[in-house]
Amino acid sequence: MGKSGLEGLKVKLHDMSLRDGMHAKREQIPVAKMVEIAKGLDAAGMPYMQVTHGAGLGGNSIQHGRAIASNAEYISAVAAAVRQSTISVLLIPGLGTMIELKEAYDCGARSVHVATHCTEADTSPQHIAYARELGMDASGFLMMSHLNDAKGLTEQALLMEGYGANTVYVTDSAGAMLTHEVAEVISMMRDALKPETEIGFHGHHNLGLGVANSIAAIGAGATRIDASLAGLGAGAGNAPIEVLAAVCDRMEIETGVDTFALMDLAEDVVVPFMDHVVRADREALTLGFAGVYSTFLLPAKRAAERFGVPARDILVELGHRKMIGGQEDMIQDTAMTMARERGLLKGVA
Amino acid sequence: MRKIRCALIGSGNIGTDLMFKLLRSELLEPVWMAGIDANSDGLKRAAEKGLKTTHEGVDGLLPHVEDDRIEIAFDATSAYVHAENSRKLNEKGVLMIDLTPAAIGPLCVPPVNLGDLAKETPMNVNMISCAGQATIPIVAAVGAVQPVDYAEIIASLSSKSIGPGTRANLDEFTYTTSNAIEKVGGARKGKALAIINPADPPMIMRNTIYCEVAGTPDKAAITASVLKMIEEVQRYVPGYKLVNGPDFDGNLVAVFMEVAGLGDYLPTYAGNLDIMTAAAARTAEMFAERLLDGTMKLRALEAV
Description:
A: alpha/beta; 45% helix; B: alpha/beta; globular
């Protein structure tokens, strides 16, 4: 067999189990369980791990669900338990604020994904600048990247670089990107950004491409890859990190993590802890196919139960309406409107 | 009939939309628009409509305040420069209606507390935010029936309607709106979320209001109170419309609204502009009535 051509590339993995994984657990991961998983990741040599409510700082809400502990409690507990890993947080402007970023920093977070929709990077300057002022590693995180083209994403990445981001992510929140699309975007960004600015990729597995897209990203110049244990995350999950690590080992891409330790952690700790098997089931596959935000999966299933409209129909309609991450309230709204149109709901409006 | 003469500071989306509202007012007359970009669309539109314009900001306006008998000014710039703008105009005895999230003066949501403000003679009134104007009336309407322990609002705004000032300072929007949900809406705790959606064609402004009430919700009374409040808001924003709800789930009340604008400056999807500028115009008209009938007098605030 021939070589992959990627031998010797160095990549930093960023575990999402304790942030994106919160979505798959309806925000109900106990602090002690977070600490157990974090210690395992730390021992396996994971360079970065993200710890917050699934929607990040400020995420505790009716809109995004209430976690069983505050972000401060989660971050402090994990930061005290790890020896070498850097703790990161997610901050979506419009939801999280600089007050919460400072609190996360005080609890031990030293890295942040500042996340905007893929066309709205200019809502992130104050948060990125503040993170850098605090001395944090700051990534700009372009969510729902499938809704912009390579040129547009590159322009947005340049804005975030200008605000001070030392990494810019292509974020496939809907698990809808195809492998050649990932490669095209990241190649264009690599040419346009400063050499010292890193590029990251955050994949979801709704079309089963989480690992393949991550490898395509690495081939095109990405050096930071988000993934999670057994894929624990929204929709059909993130790229499964133990699988990604194994593929990197086979391709001689250097990650520095202990692949067998990650395999054990995924199998022995994370999988038994799942509420449902995180996989590309009918609805999760619909997310990837229709390009809908992965986090909409579980609320759509709940709305389907309550209003009698199939979850897949709701998700497809949300896709038609071009709803983006953060518009979880529109799931119930859409379900109610569809239920009324189908004669299933009577009401005032 | 005499009208109260007004100045607009800020020539962006909000300032320009507000100008069109003031041009229709029977009590207010827009005389000046001050911007900082000589080529801004807003200043061009203002000049076309016969307003005097300056691209030297508030300082370009100040020398003309007395001669042009300006009594009310609207600030549609940003929270960071508002305090200075307000100080300079208050010194000349001009009442300031603040459309930035600076929130120096008392907060105003017309159908909720304009009546109370009429009893005071503030020299600076803050209009909170578009999201606040669209959601706080509903929080107050629920709260009029039974106590609201927690209110959370989600404003979805079309990308094209959100100007650079708001984008660069989203945290101020969040802080000011959350605070006003408590102070004006009456919720014990308030939280505001904003989403900017780039869909093309642009989505109409949407607002979801969640209220967790103390005890079992009185469904009939809350529904009646919310519907009555919607009619109140429709008196100055005709496109304020209930889409779904009130929906009751345990102690949670959910109301789903949309706001279509009049299309004065940006097209009708930008209801967020209208609800803010219409509320500001309505507030100013209340003060104008009192200035015209002599029950209120403006006073120059001394320089501090």
